[in-house]
């Protein structure tokens, strides 16, 4: 598995764990660094910090483009994968196709049978409207 794929998965683990524990994701990330026997890929921290820095706007976009689904109703894995995917699409440097493929694959493997198509469709919509979005840089 490529390094960035592992880092995305680790970022998902951190965001998901933080949500379950009602903890601050950056604190959970620091705890992971302390207990890990291997050096953490810096991209993991970049993703977690980026999602948290832009979380209000990301959640607003998810709510706007997830027809029929509220954030609280979505499976936690889907919600956090969407956060990662939107952050990467809007503020990251990976090609759109890579982000869509990776995040959709993770949703298909780690969540419900419907999660892959749902996540892919919402992220594709964000790509379509991206040039019209107002974002803080």
Order of helices and strands: HHHHHHH
Output the radius of gyration: 14 Å
Q: In total, how many domains does the architecture comprise?
A: 1
CATH class membership:
Mainly Alpha
- Largest sheet geometry: none
CATH level 4 superfamily: NusB-like
The name of the CATH topology is N-utilizing Substance Protein B Homolog, Chain A
Helix content: over 70%
Poorly predicted residue ranges: none
Number of helices: 7
Give structural notes.
The structure is a single chain. With 137 residues, this protein is mostly helical. The chain has one domain (3-132): N-utilizing Substance Protein B Homolog, Chain A. Helices cover 72% and strands 0% of the residues. It has seven helices and no strands. The longest helix has 19 residues, at 3-21. The radius of gyration is 14 Å and the shape is globular. The N and C termini lie far apart (31 Å).
Spell out the key features of this protein.
about 0% strand, N-utilizing Substance Protein B Homolog, Chain A, single chain, globular, 7 helices, about 140 residues, mainly alpha
List the helices and strands and how they pair.
Elements: H1 3-21, H2 25-35, H3 42-53, H4 55-65, H5 76-91, H6 96-110, H7 115-129
Helix pairs in contact: 1-2, 1-3, 1-5, 3-5, 4-5, 5-6, 5-7, 6-7
At a glance:
The chain has 137 residues and is mainly α.
């Amino acid at each position: 598995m490529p390094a960035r794929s592992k880092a995305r998965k680790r970022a998902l683990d951190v965001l998901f764990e933080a949500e379950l524990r009602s903890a601050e994701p950056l604190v959970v990330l620091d705890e992971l660094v302390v207990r890990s026997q291997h050096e953490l890929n810096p991209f993991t921290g970049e993703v977690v910090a980026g999602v948290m820095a832009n979380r209000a706007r990301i959640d607003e976009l998810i709510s706007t483009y997830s027809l029929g689904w509220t954030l609280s109703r979505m499976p936690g894995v889907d919600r956090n994968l969407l956060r990662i995917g939107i952050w990467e699409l809007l503020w990251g440097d990976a090609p759109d196709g890579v982000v869509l493929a990776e995040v959709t694959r993770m949703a298909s493997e780690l969540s419900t049978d419907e999660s892959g198509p749902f996540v892919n469709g919402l992220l594709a919509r964000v790509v379509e409207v991206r040039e019209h979005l107002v974002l803080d840089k």
